[in-house]
Amino acid sequence: MEEMTKVVLDAMGGDNAPGEIVRGAVNAVNDRKELSVILVGQEPVVKEELAKYSYPEDRITVCHAEDVIETAEPPVLAIRRKKDSSIVVGLKLVKEGKADAFVSAGSTGALLAGGQLLVGRLQGVERPPLAPLIPTEKGAALLVDCGANVDARPSHLVQFAKMGSLYVEHVLGIQNPRVAIVNIGAEEEKGNQLVKETFPLLKEAEGINFIGSIEARDIPAGAADVVVCEAFVGNVILKLYEGVGSTILHLMKQGLLSTLRSKIGALLVKPALKETMKRFDASQYGGAPLLGCKGLVVKTHGSATAKEVYNTLLQCKTFKEQNVNQKILECFSVPEEEK
Amino acid sequence: MEEMTKVVLDAMGGDNAPGEIVRGAVNAVNDRKELSVILVGQEPVVKEELAKYSYPEDRITVCHAEDVIETAEPPVLAIRRKKDSSIVVGLKLVKEGKADAFVSAGSTGALLAGGQLLVGRLQGVERPPLAPLIPTEKGAALLVDCGANVDARPSHLVQFAKMGSLYVEHVLGIQNPRVAIVNIGAEEEKGNQLVKETFPLLKEAEGINFIGSIEARDIPAGAADVVVCEAFVGNVILKLYEGVGSTILHLMKQGLLSTLRSKIGALLVKPALKETMKRFDASQYGGAPLLGCKGLVVKTHGSATAKEVYNTLLQCKTFKEQNVNQKILECFSVPEEEK
Predict the structure, then answer these.
(1) DSSP A1
(2) Interface TM-score (ipTM) > 0.90
């Protein structure tokens, strides 16, 4: 029999809360028997949404939280002050062992701060990175770190590589994933101080398939499965992906509607184009885990729809079943003889 | 009468040398009376290309250089050893005042090293940044620095902002250009150490229209005219622009050819789509200047075609006519009372 996975879901976070969040939860629980969800948020609102669906009532429960942390609030302060917010209440349920994972589309900053302050790091983990999957021509790549730790040190990047590799292998099922470090040239001597110091450490690191430097140009083509960088660069990569993508699609739409001839053509190409561009849609891969926390903390897009919530819940299930945290612990445990 | 601008053009650099380079020079000189070009490279090869065209022979001359610096060579070493390479010979002509500018599609590293070592910096300039124009929905933005100075200091970034602003105003003709610093959030307290230290300096800086932080997502939309960042981040932005763009276009082509219906539609939309996507084509803006050198040093894309070479030569002409270097000198000159 499969083990039950229990996920706390922030019903109040993100642009489409609570509607899409609740719908995603209902769909996931209806599809997977060994999954249960605790919706945390303002009970009357959440229950009103839930009333629209039929679902196994023993596997979706509601936990009341009066407050909501807004995106603009200073994260650490918000975590400390809003003790009764959906994020704080949810993270505490994970900390207390009452759930396996916490998922939120709310404030990234509050989630990162709360993950570290309330849930805590696994033993041996220096800094937990945020690791979203970004679409590539060949599928997806894990980008670590994309915003949790600015001004990281070389030893942090080596841990990012190891945790990222374990995640991609066991949650995405990619054998021997290719790990690369973001650099401004392919040669080993290129790069800034951080990359130059990290490169030899990654080369020597055990248990990862390090393939060297990757230039930003080669990330969308799918040249690596785990893309390692410090958080500032990672955040720039993630946001520019969105920006260039949406600008090109915007220009394309303008082009398609610019002449009568192109308008007729647009009607013909639309279905095929839509199908293809779906492959470049990040939401199919679910949310971004904050790797190296006790339990699992996952951030979904602020604009997350039911589909992304659904995929994220399944991802939490795989994470637990594959014992990824145990593998991270083993990876960073100090061998007996070195103690 | 307009002043004559004399540009040294590396006939041997880039993927399409010497054919496209020579053609771009011929077109530019035929179109503009007050422009003359010195083609530097292997004389027999260059002359053979030139023989294909008619042009005013007093305004295109050839300067022989036996060697070529390859892209893979260590830049500083190459500059020191290959004294008779097209890059070294060309840069020396600028240094000696025999030409106003040097343009090359060859090794970026050699050009950056040579610009600083052979041509030298303008008085007051700490580090010359490489500043390409990147396409946006509204036109283009200048990205400074995109690869010349990794691990830059705050004072360097302030200079990048000032030089970039002068360039955009006087060469592109954008009045009061909006200057922004690349950051991972819009709030002033966000960012890594470098950005946090640079932000207040930019706020206080005179002579620029500083609009604050820009997230990478907003660069393609055209939210700023001058985008300031250190070279590692700038290089990632430039290369990811290319990468995401080419992956999306690649997927789109696959989509358009995937069904019979879409193939017919593709024929109809092609002309309009091509016209629109031209707006997202970097080559129309010419090459990237290395700002703050005595004279002007410009890097064009390795894949530069005659069109890009043509536009770059016109850009050199505007740069000289607008006296941009004089304006940079004035901007960084120490006032009498502070001496």
Answers:
(1) -
(2) yes
Reading the block at residue B315, the tokens are 């850009």
Q: Residue A276: its chain B contacts at CB < 8 A?
A: 251-252, 254-255, 258
Both tokens of A52, joined, read 């629209």
Residue whose token pair is 């100075």: B149
Q: How far apart are CA A246 and CA A235, in angstroms?
A: 17
Structure confidence at residue B188 (pLDDT):
67
Q: A-B interface: how many C-beta pairs under 8 angstroms?
A: 206
Alpha helices in A32-153 (DSSP H): 43-50, 75-81, 86-95, 108-114
Q: How many Å apart are CA A280 and CA A136, to the nearest integer?
A: 7
Averaged pLDDT for residues A235-243: 93
Query: Phi and psi for A155 in degrees, rounded to 5?
Result: -65, -30
Nearest CA in chain B to A150: B192
What pLDDT digit, counting tens, does each position of B138-188 carry?
A: 889 999 999 888 889 999 999 999 999 999 999 999 999 999 999 997 666
Which residue do the tokens 């302030």 mark? B158
Question: Edge-to-edge strands of the sheet including B209-215?
Answer: B133-136, B139-144, B226-228, B178-183, B209-215
A319, with CB counted inside 10 A (0-12, 13-18, 19+), is buried
Phi, psi for residue B107 in degrees, rounded to 5: -55, 115
Residues from chain A contacting residue B262 (CB–CB below 8 Å): 268-269, 271-273
**DSSP SS3 for B191:** coil
Per-residue confidence (pLDDT) for residue A114, from 0 to 100: 95
**Average pLDDT for chain B:** 92
The minimum CA-CA distance between A97 and chain B, rounded to whole Å, is: 33
Cβ–Cβ gap B246/A136 under 8 Å: no
Q: Give B238's contacts in chain A (Cβ within 8 Å).
A: 216
Contact B247 A147 (CB under 8 A): no
**Which distant-in-sequence residues (6+ apart) come within 8 Å of B71 by Cβ?**
B106, B107, B108, B302
DSSP A199: H
pLDDT at residue B1, as a whole number: 53
Q: Which two tokens stand for residue B148?
A: 């010349």
The number of angstroms, rounded, from the C-alpha of A288 to the middle of its chain's C-alpha atoms is 0
Considering only CB atoms, A240 lies closest to which of B151, B216, B264, namely B216
Spatial CB neighbours of A9, under 8 Å, sequence gap ≥ 6: A21, A25, A37, A38, A39, A40, A90, A102, A103, A104, A309, A313
Out of A241, A266, A277, closest to residue B251 by CB: A277
Q: Do B247 and A218 touch (CB under 8 A)?
A: no
Q: How do residues B290-308 score in pLDDT, each as one tens digit?
A: 999 999 999 999 989 999 9
The residue to which tokens 């470049």 are assigned: A280
Amino acid at B57: E
| Contacts with B256 from chain A: Cβ below 8 Å | 269, 272-273
> Where do we find the tokens 């942090």?
A156
In a 3-state reduction of DSSP, which class is residue A74?
Answer: coil
* pLDDT over 90 (residue B284): no
Look at residue A267 and give its three-state secondary structure: helix
| Rama region for A138: left / alpha / beta (φ>0; ψ in -120 to 50; rest) | alpha
- The torsion of the CA quartet B97, B101, B102, B104, rounded to 10 degrees, works out to 180
Count of alpha carbons within 13 angstroms of residue B18, beta-carbon side: 24
Q: Which of A238, A138, A122, A236 is nearest to A178 (CA)?
A: A138
Amino acid letter for position B135: P
Chain B interface test: which of A217, A256, A263, A275 (most B C-beta within 10 Å): A217
- Residues 6 or more apart whose Cβ sits within 8 Å of residue A317: A5, A7, A32, A34, A35
